[in-house]
Amino acid sequence: MKSTQILALLLCAVFAQLLNANDNLFYWRGPSWNGVLPATNLPEKWEPKGINHLFTHEIQGGGVPVVAGDRMYHFGYYGVGPELQEAIVCMHPVTGKVIWEKRYSDFLSDTVYNRYGIGAPVIDQETGNVYFYTSSGLLLGFDRDGNEIWKHSLMEEFSRLTFPNGRTGGPAIDGNLVIVHGITANWGSNGPARNRFYAFDKRSGELVWFSTPGVGPKDSSFSPLHFDDLEDGRRVFYTGTGCGNVVCVDARTGEALWRYQMSHGGVNSGVVLHGKDTLVAIHGKENIDKTSMGRMVSIKKPTVIPSGAELPMVLSEKDVNWKQDYEAFTSSPCIVGDRIYQTVKTGELLSIDVSNGNTVWHLKLGHDQLHASPLYADGKIYVGLHTSEFYIIEPAEKKGKILNKVKLEGAILAQPSAAQGRVYIQTKKKLYAFGSKKPPAPWTPTAQPKATGSGAPARIQIVPAEFALVPGQELKFKAYYLDKTGRRIGPAEGLTWEKYIPPTAKVKVKVDADLSSDGTLKAGPNAKLSAGAIRASKNGVAGVARGRILPDLPYVEDFEDGFSLTLTNTDGDKFSFPPLPWLGARMRWQVLQHEGTKVIGNTLDRVLFQRSMNFLGRPDMKNYTMEADVMTDGNRRIMSTVGLINQRYNISLIGNHQKIEVVSNYDRFKHSVPFTIKPKTWYRLKTQVDVHQDGTGTIRAKAWKRGEDEPADWTIEAKHDTVHKNGSPGLFAFSPQSQKRVFIDNLKVTPRK
User: Fold this and answer.
1) Side-chain half-sphere CA neighbours of 256 within 13 A
2) Does residue 472 sit in helix, strand or coil?
3) pLDDT tier for residue 163 given thresholds of 50, 70 and 90
4) Residue in 190, 42, 108, 142 with CA at minimum distance from that of residue 506
5) What is the C-alpha separation between 139 and 205, in angstroms, rounded?
6) Sign of the CA dihedral 258, 261, 264, 266?
7) What is the pLDDT of residue 18?
8) How far, in Å, CA of 641 to CA of 731, rounded?
């Protein structure tokens, strides 16, 4: 065969592959991460049960479907009340036939599902696997056939916080990484609540890096990621955070490169790139320079980014091209040529000149609009409103023309999606599909370009970046040399491994485990509750991982040994920090002297921490009994809430309402019975969760005055048809307006036969 023929065949194969890829939708914001999709031959009009209507699926939500060949993946929820469950659903993109689905109950959250979207799945083009992120912080990966690859509970592993508005967002894939973000209050240096980013290996699920690019948040954020290649070879992403910043983070290493403060609240809309040197972002919170709400900002990309201690750079007004007071809370912009298309609070679709931010034309669609992002595809703009109207709009230079308007059932809070000549729209009640009945073209996973490093190693990357072991477990670390751009050169061998205390560490401790010369960490059978860092180095380059040794059962803590009360709190009381490996505890609990004994009490110095929840163990723990002495300060007019977390149920004594309560989600699964609670009085609280053979379960708890005989009967028994089968033990406190402290002592977690 002649070389020209071979070349022609190769070009055809490449073209076919590109066409195949362009006819699908792997990430909800599109291949350029900006709400512009390559889909073609999309309908210009449709009606439910009429023209161009393919199917309607009875699923609730605010997510965005993604499509690869004959598989469409969607994230929504079924049911109401206590049995509501979130679901990843694999469907045929033309018929809507369910191929497989997985359902998950929300837990330990106050998510209200009628406010915002709950996220979108993402498809990996190289493996065909699909990943999604639940409201309660479960990050899960599945293959095309619905087999679970790996999972993480970010709440129980990193103390991810939940919020009533259900801001979850979705994961993004870049190279070999699945990246998510949320507000976490982890342990040690990562104890303060921050908007953090976590990158997991898409095949193994191992944590590759974590990053904290911002400052203390006042809100959550589910801003999507926009990836970019810098001229110096680094791969980065841009996004918004809960602390009101737009940030730039190295996608390969997690290093925070720069941030720009644009609001006092969370930035939830996506950041989009125009050309090579301009970013556009919008928010709907209070501006930093005046009390007005909302603003669109054009930011100049820094041309030079320093390294090391000078990062992240803090950009200022000299780095801004222009500002315009447009208000959009979660709706993300899309850029086509020199025009930005954006829906704003006033219910208008704006066409904005990207060079100066001026409005070129506007189209009134409704009385307001905060959430669903517009979609640009096939020369048209598709946008839905929370009032259930959906518009197809033809944009022009000086005006926009409405091609079709249709009323659907349920509020539209999410961007539509488009692929294979079809448009998918999720309302709060149903998923609609419109467009071509043509069978989808076959699709198979395709190899993606590899970012292989070169030159001298600049650093070592240790995987996993964070670990958790129990006595008797061991872990063999992986180590890779990275070049100056963060690309992996290859495995790092012949390293010097050591337990390590970072110079900035406030608590000078080491993990109680043996570390071998080949990077194997082994926790002995009697390993103590501990935490610390691991360092690997060679020839002047190094990498660091950190982790914890968690308790095996039985676990008992009376706070007497190992706690020196040498610190002074804002009330002038001497205290010690709680056990370092407890997630989310350092900023929320203190070991104190109380009536001649040591106990822990919750902190009251910040209203943000009036609700405290932290975890002591692993998310896979189950079938255990948990008990402790609990007490609330206060008087007959005001008291606080104190409780235990058992297998993803919060069981608490609520002083202000004189009851004992079992709750998993405050809006759905909540049961209580009257119980007399006196302030400054110790009670013994005991809990367990019984999982029955049919998949249902019963949550049981009893409480009695300390020193009295344990009652034979349970104080409360709550049945749950979709019982949580596992979950980490934890502690809970709620002090309204941070007024009255709660105390816990003599904690005990024991296994059950």
Assistant:
1) 26
2) coil
3) confident
4) 190
5) 10
6) negative
7) 42
8) 11
pLDDT at residue number 379: 96
CA distances from 123 to 93, 222, 245, 273 (A): 15, 18, 28, 22
Asked if 708 and 146 touch (Cβ cutoff 8 Å), the reply is: no
Could you read off the pLDDT of 629-674 as tens digits, one per residue?
A: 999 999 988 999 999 999 999 999 999 999 999 999 877 789 999 9
β-bridge partners, 281:
297
The length of the chain is 753
DSSP string of 220-268, one letter each residue: ---PPPEEEE-TTS-EEEEEE-TTSEEEEEETTT--EEEEEE--SS---
Asked if 565 and 592 touch (Cβ cutoff 8 Å), the reply is yes
| DSSP, res 671 | E
Q: Which amino acid is at 120?
A: A
State how far the Cα of 534 lies from the Cα of 500, in Å rounded to an integer: 5
> Is residue 612 pLDDT above 60, yes or no?
yes
Count Cβ atoms below 10 Å from residue 261 Cβ, excluding itself: 17
Percent of the chain with pLDDT over 90: 82
pLDDT 10s digits, 481-523: 999 999 999 999 999 999 999 888 878 899 999 999 999 999 9
Question: 309 pLDDT band (50/70/90 cuts)?
Answer: low
List domains and CATH numbers for the chain: 459-549 (2.60.40.10), 555-751 (2.60.120.560)
State the CB neighbour count (10 A cutoff) for residue 650: 25
How confident is the model over 551-602, as pLDDT tens digits?
999 999 999 999 999 999 988 999 999 999 999 998 899 999 999 999 999 9
Confidence of residue 713 (pLDDT cuts 50, 70, 90): very high
Q: Choose among 86, 726, 42: nearest CA to 433.
A: 42
Tokens of 252: 């390969």
R_g of the chain, CA atoms, integer Å: 27
Per-residue pLDDT tens over the stretch 31-55: 999 999 999 999 999 999 999 999 9
The answer to whether the CB of 619 falls within 8 A of the CB of 157 is yes
What is the spatial order of strands in the sheet that 380-384 belongs to?
36-37, 375-377, 380-384, 389-395, 400-407
* Tokens representing residue 696 in the block: 């249902």
CA angle 362, 364, 369 (to 5 degrees): 105
Residue 515, phi then psi, degrees to nearest 5: -115, 120
- Distance set, CA 641 to CA 561, 634, 653 (Å): 27, 11, 6
State the residue for tokens 């890779």: 480
- Give the integer Cα–Cα distance in Å for 753 and 743: 30
| Contact of 703 with 686, CB cutoff 8 Å | yes
Quote the tokens at residue 516. 């071998």
Residue with tokens 């490449």: 14
| Averaged pLDDT score across all residues of the chain | 92
Distance CA 244, CA 266 (A): 5
Residue type, 211: S
Residues 6+ apart with CB under 8 A from 702: 685, 686, 710, 711, 713, 714, 715, 716
